[in-house]
Specification:
- By secondary structure, this protein is α/β, with parallel strands linked by helices.
- 45% of the residues lie in helices and 17% in strands.
- It has 3 domains: 37-138, 2-Layer Sandwich (Beta-Lactamase); 153-327, Rossmann fold; 331-399 and 419-469, Helicase, Ruva Protein, domain 3 (Orthogonal Bundle), CATH 1.10.8.60.
- It is built from 22 helices and 18 strands.
- The strands form 6 sheets. A 5-stranded antiparallel sheet has the order 2-1-5-4-3. A 5-stranded parallel sheet has the order 9-12-15-8-16.
- A hairpin with an 8-residue loop joins strand 13 (278-279) and strand 14.
- The longest helix has 19 residues, at 418-436.
- The protein is elongated and about 105 Å long.
- Bound molecules: adenosine-5'-triphosphate and magnesium ion.
- Adenosine-5'-triphosphate (ATP) binds at residues 158-160, 186, 188-194, 299, 339, 342, 375-376, 379, 451.
């Protein structure tokens, strides 16, 4: 073999630069590089016809180079976006690159493949536009892993990755099956109702009704007729029998919300139903059997109410058979990104928008906020942001203005730790909202998505007097 041929052979594998060979001049070199990258890369001419197509592009799309070259790119990729606003066309027109836009394409087998694309214009040496280049990354594996993780961190619509929730998720099916009375405790907006519904859905009563009563919303006598119903003639307006919620929940679950707001009189009646499984409708003569599972919830401290004589101890013990305590959101900040994603998916579906995420700065603001209104408040914040967001990412400017913005270079004193920091931040946030509403507690509570009595309690705990913010 002559020296010349040996050199030529080697040049195909690894061209030695000292032999005067300039790789940038050799189209085979460019192709070698492009074929060795994991991302799909292709180029189009000014008409949008494919002029090159690397090996990863073949693997991701299922089309061979030969099939792709010379075709319009929309014939190969067949994504919705091809017709609504072709990214390559947009890049050629605006001369601005697109970076990491997520779209779904159809591969040769007509299966949807999620990809992330980036584009740039191509110019020749004299600066003349000759086409565009697009690189794209297969997101299938990431999406699959993502779904796997979401599944692991959600249970019956309840999303969390906190240890406290994981422990509850583990025992929830057994709790649900047991038919025992369950007491769900947690601040406003922590998801008490969600848990009550999950218990019902996991129980053998799932085919029966799930009926809710808000014990704090009605005055005493109305609440009793709501719970137990009445018979015709029980009072002047009672022209016919009206079944109570106990009757309506027959065979299912009755969710008694805000149980801490019950009057002492109604507490006695409820205790009787829990003990004897029977009750009497107003004006009735016959007792009725209650085949109902009870789940009760409150944001109040029931032990404190018992100590103050405002809640019967015997009823408390009856309800407290199984107790689920939901920690407030500020004690599980690891759930914030997960919940943001969960709500964005839901809100996208509702609004028809395609918001992919949230900017790092907006995320910092949300992670830094103590959420007196817990998950409901986070949900309200995102609803607000989605309405204002016109692009694909939520920015800090889309967040409600009452959220404290981050000041650069200002950090909390290192001596302050954990709960203390949270308390300070919660106080700041409450003050901010209260000031905006000139001390009107009802309005401030509404904005925060919490009950007015919860706000009063938080104000007391944080040493805020209404007069100082009015
Ligand atoms: N862990 C969670 N995952 C997903 N959604 C949640 C979660 N926690 C709460 N939510 C949502 O937040 C909102 C408030 O939850 P829910 O009504 O269950 O709270 P609550 O504790 O009953 O509040 P309140 O005491 O004010 O009645 C609901 O829209 C619920 O779906
Ligand atoms: Mg509730």
């Amino acid at each position: 073999m002559s020296r010349g041929t040996r050199n030529k052979d080697r040049r195909h594998k690894l061209p030695p630069e000292d032999r005067g060979w300039d790789p940038s001049e050799d189209p085979r070199w460019t192709r070698l590089i492009l074929d060795s990258v994991a991302d799909g890369v292709f180029t189009v001419d000014r008409e949008g016809r494919i002029t090159s197509f690397n090996r990863a592009a073949e693997r991701i799309t299922g089309f061979s180079r030969e099939e792709a070259i010379g075709q319009y790119c929309h014939e190969i990729f067949r994504a919705n976006i091809c017709f609504e606003g072709c990214p390559l066309k947009r890049t050629a027109e605006t001369e601005e690159s697109i970076i990491n836009l997520e779209v779904n394409i159809l591969n040769k087998q007509n299966q949807e493949v999620p990809i992330s694309i980036s584009t740039a214009v191509l110019r020749d040496e004299s600066g003349r536009l000759i086409g565009a280049v697009e690189t794209f990354r297969d997101l299938s594996l990431i999406r699959e892993l993502h779904q796997e993780i979401s599944k692991r961190y959600s249970f019956q619509d309840i999303v969390s990755r906190s240890e406290a929730f994981m422990r509850i998720f583990q025992v929830l099916p057994d709790i649900a099956e047991s038919d025992a009375t369950v007491l769900v405790l947690g601040e406003s907006g922590t998801g008490k109702e969600l848990f009550a519904a999950a218990i019902h859905n996991l129980s053998h009563r799932r085919k029966g009704p799930f009926v809710k009563v808000n014990c704090g919303a009605l005055p005493d006598t109305l609440l009793e007729s709501e719970l137990f119903g009445y018979k015709k003639g029980a009072f002047t307006d009672a022209r016919r029998d009206k079944p109570g919620r106990f009757k309506l929940a027959e065979g299912g679950t009755l969710f008694l919300d805000e149980i801490g707001d019950l009057s002492l009189g109604t507490q006695v009646k409820l205790l009787r139903v829990l003990e004897k499984k029977e009750y009497e409708p107003l004006g009735g003569v016959r007792t009725e059997r209650a085949d109902v599972r009870i789940v009760a919830a409150t944001h109040r401290d029931l032990e404190e109410l018992v100590a103050e004589g405002r809640f019967r101890e015997d009823l408390f013990y009856r309800l407290n058979v199984i107790r689920i305590e939901i920690p407030p959101l500020r004690e599980r900040p690891e759930d914030i990104p997960l919940l943001i994603e969960h709500f964005l998916t839901k809100l996208n579906r509702k609004s028809g928008k395609q918001i992919k995420g949230i900017s790092p700065e907006a995320m910092k603001i949300l992670l830094n906020y103590p959420y007196p209104g817990n998950v409901r408040e986070l949900q309200n914040i995102l609803e607000h942001a989605v309405i204002l967001c016109k692009g694909v990412e939520i920015q800090s400017s889309h967040l409600p203005s009452y959220l404290p913005r981050l000041q650069e270079g200002v950090s909390l004193e290192p001596s302050l730790r954990g709960k203390e920091i949270l308390r300070i931040k919660e106080r700041e946030a409450l003050l901010e909202v209260l000031r905006r509403h000139r001390g009107r507690v009802g309005d401030a509570a509404k904005e925060l998505g919490i009950h007015r009595s919860t706000l009063w309690r938080k104000m007391k705990r944080c040493g805020i007097h209404r007069d100082s913010v009015a």
